[in-house]
Design brief:
Elements (H helix, E strand, L loop, with lengths): L5 H6 L7 E5 L6 E2 L2 E2 L4 E9 L3 E4 L5 E2 L6 E3 L2 E5 L4 E6 L4 E4 L4 E8 L6 E9 L1 E5 L9 E5 L4 E6 L2 E7 L2 E8 L12 E5 L8 E3 L4 E6 L2 E2 L3 E2 L2 H9 L75 H9 L5 E15 L5 E14 L4 E2 L7 E5 L2 E3 L2 E5 L8 H12 L4 E2 L9 E3 L4 E6 L5 E12 L5 E11 L2 E2 L17 H6 L4 E8 L2 E3 L5 E3 L1 E10 L4 E2 L5 E6 L10 E6 L4 E2 L9 E3 H4 L5 E11 L1 E11 L5 E9 L11 H11 L3 E5 L2 E7 L5 E13 L4 E3 L4 E8 L4 E8 L2 E3 L9 E5 L8 E11 L2 E13 L5 E13 L6
Antiparallel strand pairs: 1-12, 1-14, 2-3, 4-7, 4-9, 5-6, 5-8, 8-11, 9-10, 10-13, 11-12, 13-16, 14-15, 15-18, 16-17, 17-20, 18-19, 20-21, 20-22, 23-24, 23-33, 23-34, 24-25, 24-26, 25-29, 27-28, 30-31, 31-32, 32-33, 35-38, 36-37, 36-46, 38-39, 38-40, 39-42, 40-41, 43-44, 44-45, 45-46, 47-49, ...
C-alpha cells in the first residue's frame, strides 16, 4: 500500500487516492431531507481529542467544532487519541480513527440532476454507516493499487490499515429483505461488477486486501478483531463528543458458524461461547452447587439444531412469520446445439407456522416464482430482451413441485438440523444476532419441454430476516415484464377500462393441496384518468365441485374488490397491487392484481379465498379487454328491489354467446357449442328450477368424437347467493344428469338496473374419461320462464 503525504495529496487529483468511497447519483437535491441549494457535504457531528484538523480548498486550516459544515474538497486528518465523525447529507456516517487522513469530495448539481459523494482514504481507519438515500445503488470503495473495488450495501463496515494490508470487516446489520434492495452486503470485484470475487454477508467476517488482491472471507479471530478495534481507541461517541464504551464490538457477538465447505455444507453443533446478556438459547441454570458448565448456545450464523429451533418457536409471541425476498436467478437451457443461459429473478415468500412447527403451512401462500422477463432484482423495470422463458411444461411441473413442498414439519430437518430440502426450495435456519434467527433460501429445479430440452432454474438469497404474519401475496405465473412501470402509467393516455378473465385452474390450499374441478372469474377496473385501480365492478369469484379436499360439497365464494387504490401504491415500482388493499372483505387470504399493456390492457388476478366453510381456494385468472360490455355483479338487495320494480313474476336469462371444449381421454381436444337458459323468480326469490338447463353439443368429425347432452338446473334461493351478491354455485346434486359437476351463475347489472344479464360457467365430464368446460355469457333477462320442450 502506498502512503501519500498531506502536501503531495493536496497537489494530486482524487484519482491518485488509495481508497475512494463513491455513492451512485441521487435524483433529489436534498441535504438531511430538506431541499437546499447549498453545496455542502454534511456536518461534523463529533470532534474528539487534541489533533483534529480540516484543510479547506479555499485556503486555511482549522479545528472544526461539532455542527460545523463540511464542504467539497475538505481534507481531514486526525492525530493521536483523536477522532472525527462526519454525517453527510444522505445521513451516512464516517468515523475516522486516530492517525487518519482523508479528503471529502461532494459534487452537487444545483439543477437537481444528482450528487456524487467521494471520500478518498489515505491512511488510518474509517467506519462507514450507510445513509438513507443510497437506494438503489451502492457506496463503492475503489482500492486502486490492488485493482479491487468494494461495494457496500445498507450496512456498517470498517476499513482499516494494519501491518501493510487493508482489512474490511462487516459489522452489520444483516440484509433487510423487506423490500427489493438486497441490503447488508459487501461485495468485492476487480474489473467487472457482475463478477463478484468475494462477498461479506455475516457480521464478524473480514477480507484482507493487498498486492495479491482480495482474500476469501474468513471469520476474524479475537486477535484480529482486537487489532481492528484498537485502531479506534479511545472510542468516538454516537452523540456530541462524550467518550463512551463501544456498543457494537463483535468480540463477544460475531461468531459466524457454518460456512460452505468442500461438501457444500458443514453443520455446527453447540460451540464453546461464554454466556452473556445476549444469550437466548441457554438451558435453565443448574440447581445446587453443581460446578458443571451450562450447555452453551449456537454461535451467530451457525445452523440451528432442531431442538433449538423448537425452543425458538416456543418463544414467539406471534404464531407465524414469513420471509420475502427477490433475488438474482439464472436459467440454463440444455439440449440444443449449445447451452444457453439467461439471467432473471426469483421471488420467495415462505411462511413459518411457529405454533405448529411447520414451514409453508398453506400451499401457494408460500411460493417460489421464477421470472426471466426481468433481469435485476433491485429494479424490476429492467426487462430482458432475450425472449428466452421456461416453456409451459416446465412452469406446470414447477407448480406441482410447489404443491408437494407445503406443510413441511420441523421434524423433517436433515440430520437433526434446521435444513429443509423440498421439491421446490431449500431452506436453512441459522442463529441470528440476539433473540433472532436468519434464513437462507434457494431453489434449483430442472424440467423438460416437449422436445427434450432441459431447463435448469436456480437462484437464492442468504441471511434473510423474518417479518410477522404469513405474507400477503399468492403464487402467480404472470410475467413481471408485462406490467406497467410507474413511469409508463404516468404517460398512458387511456381513460377508464375494465378487464375481465376466467380460469379453470382451481386448487385447495389447506392440508394436502388438491386440484379441484371448478372455475374462477375475475374483473378489474383501471382508471387511467384518476390514476386508480380497483373499486366499482372489480371482483374475484371461485367455485368448485364437491371434493373430499373441501369437505365433500360444492362451494363458491365471491369477493368484491371495492377499494380504489392509487397507481403509485403499486409494489416494486410496477402496476402490482395486493388484494388486501383492494378489499375490506376478510375472505381474501392472499393475492395480488396486476395489469399492463397488451392487446388493449391485460392483466392477472391471483387469489386465495376462504369460502365461509373453512376451505381455501386458489386460482389465477388472466384478464383482458373484451369486445362486449363488462357490467357489475348485482347485489341480492338490488335484485329484490328490481323484483318490486318489475312487479314480480318469473323471468329467464336466455341467449348469449356459448362455447364448449373437452379434453378427450386420448389427450386431444374437441370444441363445440354450449347453451343455457336459467330462470329467476322474483316472487319466490329463486334462481334455476322448472326447465332451466345447460346443454353441450360437440361434433368433431376429424377425431370421430361426438358429445350431446342436456341437464336441467335445480332451484337455489337468493339466500344461497355468495356474500350477498348475485353469484350462485350449483353442484352435481343440483343438476339432473351425471355430466355437469359444477356450475357458477353470475347475475349482472345493466342499463336497465339489477339482474339485466347473466353468465354461466360450468365443468362437465363426457362419461368416457374426458373432461370439459362450457361458457355462456351475456344471457339477457327475458319475460317468462324457460320452456325447453
Amino acid at each position: 500500500m502506498i502512503r501519500t503525504t498531506l502536501a503531495s495529496f493536496l497537489k494530486a487529483t482524487a484519482a491518485a487516492a488509495v481508497l475512494s468511497y463513491v455513492a451512485t447519483p441521487l435524483f433529489a437535491a436534498e441535504c438531511f431531507d430538506e431541499e437546499t441549494d447549498d453545496p455542502k457535504a454534511g456536518n461534523a457531528t463529533a470532534v474528539v481529542g487534541p489533533e483534529v484538523g480540516v484543510d479547506r480548498s479555499s485556503g486555511g486550516t482549522f479545528r472544526p467544532d461539532a455542527g460545523d459544515d463540511m464542504f467539497s474538497q475538505d481534507y481531514v486528518r486526525t492525530g493521536d487519541e483523536s477522532h472525527l465523525q462526519l454525517k453527510l447529507c444522505d445521513w451516512s456516517t464516517y468515523t475516522f480513527s486516530p492517525n487518519s487522513e482523508s479528503a471529502i469530495s461532494e459534487f452537487y448539481d444545483a439543477e437537481g440532476a444528482g450528487r456524487r459523494r467521494v471520500v478518498n482514504f489515505v491512511r488510518g481507519g474509517v467506519r462507514y454507516s450507510s445513509g438513507r438515500d443510497t437506494e438503489p445503488g451502492d457506496t463503492e470503495v475503489e482500492i486502486q493499487d490492488s485493482g479491487v473495488t468494494m461495494g457496500v450495501r445498507g450496512t456498517n463496515v470498517i476499513v482499516v490499515e494494519i501491518d501493510g494490508f487493508v482489512y474490511a470487516l462487516l459489522e452489520g446489520p444483516l440484509r433487510d429483505n423487506s423490500g427489493l434492495s438486497p441490503k447488508g452486503l459487501v461485495d468485492f470485484w476487480t474489473e467487472n461488477e457482475e463478477e463478484i470475487v468475494a462477498r461479506l454477508k455475516r457480521p464478524g467476517w473480514v477480507v484482507r486486501i493487498g498486492p495479491d488482491g482480495v482474500s476469501e472471507p474468513f471469520r476474524a479471530d479475537e486477535e484480529l478483531l482486537k487489532k481492528i478495534y484498537d485502531a479506534f481507541l479511545p472510542v468516538i461517541p454516537e452523540g456530541d463528543g462524550q467518550e463512551q464504551d463501544y456498543a457494537g464490538d463483535p468480540l463477544e457477538q460475531s461468531g459466524q458458524g457454518a460456512q460452505e465447505g468442500e461438501d457444500g455444507q458443514q453443520y455446527a453443533g453447540r460451540r464453546g461461547l461464554q454466556k452473556n446478556e445476549n444469550t437466548e438459547y441457554l438451558p435453565a441454570e443448574p440447581s445446587g452447587e453443581s460446578e458443571e458448565d451450562p450447555e452453551l448456545m449456537v454461535p451467530v450464523g451457525d445452523i440451528l439444531p432442531l431442538d433449538l429451533l423448537d425452543d425458538f418457536a416456543g418463544q414467539q409471541a406471534s404464531p407465524d412469520g414469513h420471509l420475502f425476498v427477490i433475488a438474482p436467478a439464472q436459467m440454463t437451457v440444455e439440449g440444443g446445439a449449445s447451452t444457453v443461459t439467461q439471467d432473471g429473478v426469483v421471488m420467495f415468500q415462505i411462511a413459518i407456522d411457529w405454533a405448529n412447527r411447520t414451514l409453508a403451512p398453506e400451499a401457494l401462500a408460500s411460493f417460489v416464482k421464477f421470472d426471466f422477463t426481468v433481469t435485476d432484482p433491485d429494479d424490476l423495470s429492467l426487462r430482458s430482451m432475450s425472449g428466452i422463458e421456461p416453456p409451459p411444461e416446465v412452469i406446470e411441473a414447477f407448480l406441482e413441485a410447489q404443491l408437494a413442498s407445503a406443510g413441511v414439519a420441523f421434524t423433517t430437518g436433515a440430520n437433526g438440523f434446521s435444513v429443509f430440502d423440498t421439491p421446490a426450495y431449500n431452506l436453512t435456519v441459522r442463529q441470528g444476532e440476539g433473540p433472532t434467527v436468519t434464513v437462507d433460501v434457494s431453489s434449483e429445479f430442472s424440467g423438460q419441454d416437449g422436445n427434450g430440452g432441459n431447463y435448469i432454474l436456480a437462484g437464492g438469497a442468504d441471511d434473510l430476516l423474518l417479518s410477522p404474519g404469513e405474507g400477503e401475496l399468492a403464487y402467480f405465473s404472470y410475467d413481471l415484464a408485462d406490467l406497467y412501470t410507474q413511469d409508463e402509467l404516468s404517460m398512458s393516455g387511456r381513460g377508464s377500462v375494465t378487464i375481465q378473465g376466467q380460469s379453470t385452474n382451481v386448487i385447495s390450499t389447506l392440508g394436502a393441496p388438491a386440484r379441484l374441478t371448478g372455475w374462477s372469474v375475475a374483473q378489474l377496473e383501471v382508471n387511467f384518468a384518476d390514476r386508480t385501480v380497483g373499486g366499482g365492478s372489480s371482483f374475484v369469484a371461485i367455485s368448485a365441485a364437491a371434493d373430499s379436499a373441501i369437505g365433500g360439497a360444492n362451494t363458491v365464494q365471491y369477493v368484491p374488490l371495492d377499494q380504489e387504490v392509487a397507481f403509485d401504491t403499486g409494489l416494486f415500482g410496477l402496476s402490482f397491487y395486493t388484494l388486501v388493499t383492494l378489499t375490506s372483505d376478510p375472505s381474501i387470504v392472499a393475492g395480488e392484481a396486476m395489469f399492463g399493456p397488451g392487446d388493449g390492457v391485460e392483466g392477472s388476478i391471483a387469489a386465495i379465498l376462504e369460502d365461509g366453510s373453512g376451505n381455501h381456494l386458489y386460482s389465477e385468472a388472466f384478464l383482458s379487454q373484451t369486445s362486449f360490455n363488462v357490467d357489475p355483479i348485482s347485489t341480492i338487495a338490488a335484485l329484490d328491489s328490481q323484483g318490486v320494480t318489475l312487479g314480480g313474476g318469473v323471468f329467464r336469462f336466455d341467449g348469449g354467446f356459448g362455447s364448449s371444449s373437452v379434453q378427450r381421454a386420448d389427450g386431444g381436444f374437441s370444441f363445440g357449442d354450449a347453451e343455457a337458459s336459467i330462470d329467476i323468480d322474483f316472487d319466490s326469490r329463486t334462481v334455476g328450477g322448472v326447465e332451466s338447463y345447460v346443454s353441450v353439443l360437440i361434433d368433431d368429425m376429424f377425431s370421430n368424437y361426438t358429445l350431446d347432452f342436456v341437464e336441467f338446473v335445480g332451484e337455489l334461493s337468493f339466500d344461497d347467493a355468495s356474500n350477498g351478491a348475485g353469484v350462485f354455485g350449483f353442484g352435481d346434486g343440483d343438476l339432473s344428469g351425471s355430466n355437469v359437476e359444477n356450475l357458477m351463475l353470475l347475475i349482472r347489472d345493466g342499463s336497465g338496473g339489477a339482474g339485466e344479464s347473466a353468465d354461466v360457467f360450468f365443468n362437465f365430464n363426457d362419461g368416457m374419461g374426458g373432461n370439459g368446460v362450457g361458457v355462456v355469457e351475456e344471457m339477457l333477462r327475458q319475460q317468462g320462464a324457460t320452456s325447453f320442450f
